[in-house]
Amino acid sequence: MTKYTDIGVETHGHVGLIEIRKPPLNFFDVSLINQIADALEEFDNNIEIRASVLAAQGKAFCAGANFGDPARQEQEERAKTDPASNLPINHLYVQAVRIFRNKKPIVAAVQGAAIGGGLGLAVSADFRVACPETRFAANFTKLGFHPGFGLTTTLPELIGKNNAELMFYTSRRVTGEEAYRWGLANVLVPQDQVRAAAMKLAQEIAECSPLGLVSTRATMRAGLADRVLAATNHELVEQNKLRSTEDFKEGVKATAERRVANFKGR
Prior knowledge:
GO terms for molecular function: catalytic activity. InterPro entries: ClpP/crotonase-like_dom_sf (IPR029045), Enoyl-CoA_hyd/isom_CS (IPR018376), Enoyl-CoA_hydra/iso (IPR001753). Belongs to the enoyl-CoA hydratase/isomerase family. Pfam families: ECH_1 (PF00378). This is Enoyl-CoA hydratase. This protein is an alpha/beta fold. The chain has one domain (7-192, 209-256): 2-enoyl-CoA Hydratase, Chain A, domain 1. The chain has helices spanning 30-44, 70-79, 88-100, 117-124, 151-159, 161-170, 176-182, 194-206, 210-220, 224-242, 246-256, and strands at residues 7-12, 15-20, 51-56, 106-109, 113-115, 127-130, 135-137, 173-175, 187-188. The protein has a six-stranded mixed beta sheet with strand order 1-2-3-4-6-9, sandwiched between helices. Helix 1 links the parallel strand 2 and strand 3. The termini are far apart. The relative contact order is 0.14.
């Protein structure tokens, strides 16, 4: 099995477990998404694995990208001369699409916040187990940014166009209970039971025929990866337009300072 630096990978009978290990907030980068895609590919190639669980250490499932990271800010400054090619997020979306091309069911154990691209990662799974403390947020517009990680396609397909628009336009945090009512979460349990409930669901799935599972899932998710690819291509164009604006700089700064942003529309 491949050696990983940002995730732990285990097998439990017919269930694979991927644990994000970048606590407390589990910010993602290209390396993390690449490792998750690699692990899922390993599970696809392992005849013994029939379903997998995606979980995380720490208080958050995944808080998305760390816009306050000095290295990321430096890369973004360099990318302004060639925004279509230099930015790491370009490569991140390539890895994200790989996740959507995996063949076997995934259950996400969302014990805390799934924010921005972290929401996109949670939505890439077939099912989500949440708790009252879980918070789902597409907080892009509060940053002065455009949604990414394929969410403009995956979120409306999951919870309906209008609910997706509500999340996009307000950037509000949706609680575990509300997510359960919307169908964004499939199972709602106390926080200390989230991972166990996710494993239980994955084990229930793994009791079914592996050939039947792969065949049925291919039918149910037909074309999804290609739709996500098209979505991320468009999302990246819009994100590159907004990246150099004053509003984006103010949104990131205000978020870091935990205050309401003073947007100017420029």
